[in-house]
Sequence to fold (132 residues):
Amino acid sequence: MFARYLLLASLILAGCSKPKPAPEADQTTSQPAAATPDVEKGKEVFNQRCVPCHGSTGHGDGPASASLNPKPRKFADGNWQAQVTDDYIEKIIQLGGAAVGKSPAMPSNPDLQSQPQVVAGLRTVVRGFRPN
Fold:
């Protein structure tokens, strides 16, 4: 019986002891840098895959947009540009509209998931439609 009390007391005391401070983070390691945009390849992919719906000027008026409901995003909309993050743009490029609660008509581009420079280039192209 005494052994049980001794064990219980040692567990309680162990739980009340001060935790050891965490070692300081290694200042030399950091998150990986964002991919350097391959804007030329991004433009090429945009012209092939995005222009049919979003249009060459980013106004959502490409030749295929007439039959779409909802209409494609207008990248030239300053309010939209101000509200979305670069991560959001890159996510929708790679995973498609359904992945972010938007139209499933916006297709995914799984082949670009292994090409972060191209995704960053596409994001740069989309950001380039932002009005001054």
